[in-house]
Amino acid sequence: MSRIKANARPVKTVILSAGQGRRLLSLTKDIPKCLIPVAGKSIIGWQIDALLAYGIDDITVVTGFKSKDVETVLQQRYNNRARINTIFNPFFEITDNIV
Question: What is the count of structural domains for the chain?
């Protein structure tokens, strides 16, 4: 894979992270699926770090379950490294990421 060229159009990314991850309920009872640690880093951390490595730093994360926890982690980890916005899906309990 090649890096994004400096003169290329800006790339924006949306990460869907609203659901609780009920199929993983033993792991997601108290934390959102995107914050589950895998090899020392959260799932969303792996996603965002990969995007940043390719020059993509305009990221929107759709949140739902424990939204404030996700926002806190994103702000602490990426405050000066990327432009990360969050959008809260108020229907996450009913629709997960569909709406």
Answer: 1
